[in-house]
């Protein structure tokens, strides 16, 4: 994996959210936001360790496969846009900003020529 995601989204399962206290949910969101912003490179395993340590301090345990999937969604360079929400659309955290992926150059420009035929 040699490119960062354009934007990152975590959608939390309602059953998981119900297992957390309000403080744990707030901490979970903080751990994910900080991990996605401060983790350099594309090392999923290293990011897994960072997330796991943060969640452990909060008393939150998630299955290894879920931990790895979450890290895969967050890995990349810098503070790309990030949204953390519940399945029903409640936004718990949102970071807007620039993607770490350069914009794609336009390959075709449509000229504004009045003599250009209209194609239907």
Runs with pLDDT <50, length 5+? 1-5
Count of helical segments?
Answer: 4
Distance between the termini: 42 Å
Q: Which strand order spans the largest sheet, edge to edge or round the barrel? A: 1-2-3
Note the run of SSEs as H and E: EHHHHEE
Radius of gyration: 19 Å
Biggest β-sheet, characterized?
Answer: 3 strands, mixed
In percent, how much strand structure appears in the residues?
Answer: 5-15%
Strand tally is: 3
Mean pLDDT: 80
Explain this structure.
The chain is elongated, with a radius of gyration of 19 Å. It has helices spanning 14-18, 22-38, 44-58, 64-74; strands at residues 8-12, 82-86, 91-95. It has one domain (8-95). Strands 1-2-3 form a three-stranded mixed sheet. A hairpin with a 4-residue loop joins β2 and β3 (91-95). α2 (22-38) runs antiparallel to α3 (44-58) and α3 packs across α4. With 120 residues, it is of the alpha+beta class.
How would you sum up this structure in a few lines?
With 120 residues, the chain is an alpha+beta fold. Helix content is 40%, strand content 12%. The chain has a 3-stranded mixed beta sheet with strand order 1-2-3.
Structural key phrases:
120 residues; 4 helices; 3 strands; disordered N terminus; alpha+beta; 12% strand
Task: Furnish the topology, listing elements before pairings.
Blueprint: E1 8-12, H1 14-18, H2 22-38, H3 44-58, H4 64-74, E2 82-86, E3 91-95
Parallel strand pairs: 1-2
Antiparallel strand pairs: 2-3
Helix pairs in contact: 2-3, 3-4
């Amino acid at each position: 994996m040699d490119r960062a995601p354009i934007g990152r989204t975590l959608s939390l399962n309602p059953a998981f959210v119900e297992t957390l206290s309000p403080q744990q949910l707030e901490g979970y969101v903080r751990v994910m936001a900080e991990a996605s912003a401060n983790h350099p490179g594309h090392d999923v395993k290293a990011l897994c360790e960072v997330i796991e340590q943060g969640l452990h301090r909060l008393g939150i345990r998630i299955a290894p496969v879920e931990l790895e999937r979450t890290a895969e969604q967050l890995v990349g360079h810098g503070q790309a846009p990030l949204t953390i929400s519940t399945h029903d659309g409640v936004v718990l955290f949102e970071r807007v900003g620039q993607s770490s992926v350069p914009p794609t150059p336009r390959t075709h420009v449509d000229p504004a020529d009045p003599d250009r035929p209209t194609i239907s």
